[in-house]
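Problem statement: downstream parser choked on a complex file, so we are re-checking the raw output for the adenosine-5'-diphosphate run. The parser issue turned out to be on our end (a line-ending mismatch), but while we're here, posting the original submission so the record is complete.
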Amino acid sequence: MTVLEIKGLRAGVEGREILNGIDLVVRSGEVHAVMGPNGAGKSTLSGVILGRPGYEVLGGSVTLDGEDVLAMTTPERALAGLHLVMQYPTEVPGVRLVDAMVEAFVARGRDASDVARLLGDEAATIGFDEKLLVRSLNVDFSGGEKKRNETLQLAALVPKVAILDELDSGLDIDALRACARRIEALTEPHPDGLGDTVDGVGVLAITHYARLLTELRPDAVHILVKGRMVAQGGPELADQLEADGYAAFAADGDEADAAPTRAPRDLGTLDDLFAPPS
Ligand code: ADP
Ligand code: MG
């Protein structure tokens, strides 16, 4: 049983605090949905957990089975079993998905000889065109193809905890259903590709819409507004949100803050795998 534990997490960018104390525990096989309006800090939360450059951790902790995640480099976090499905998947000219996956398997001590077949099977499951496996990663892919590609990597790598940052953006309804179902299946115990059976993947699903959660059934729904968790509950909370919007969950003292503007970042785009498209 794996436990990702986020305690009192505070983080910001350029001196501005964006996350004001987040507490969240995700265990193997559990699905936690984090919903919130634009600018609430959802992508910041996912970026801080995976170590995206540019964020400052101001307090609190993130541990995976007791290990200090915040002290690890991003590759170390991935090898420890964390996986991020990015809101804006990065285009990587000259690198094919199949080659990237071979590297990832080797890094994990897994036999990579079967990667092409495995990816072919996974592609068929979620309706991803197999030809894209041997094209440059995400280059000229449609929004939906990028998200299917991300789902494929997730299914092939079998992480302990997956963070989905708006998996649903860019996906049409059929693709969304296919990807959500595939991930729901991963939350059950399954083969790890090394001959063992492992616990189901724990999922932190960041989304605006309840639709994702009709296939990927959440155990808990958390509502993030202005860097704070303002409500949590069961799946019914997502339905309530769909009906009433976020207004009912506004954080205290809201009106006082003007909408912040996103300051330009210069983190060296070649190194920043997380940068949104310019
Ligand atoms: P969400 O994913 O919930 O829409 P984000 O986490 O992307 O929200 O952003 C939260 C807030 O932090 C927003 O006000 C955004 O403008 C700001 N922000 C996020 N990243 C940066 C950055 N790199 N530089 C400046 N401001 C940022
Ligand atoms: Mg976001």
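For whoever reads this later: Residues 131 and 194 are 27 Å apart (CA to CA).
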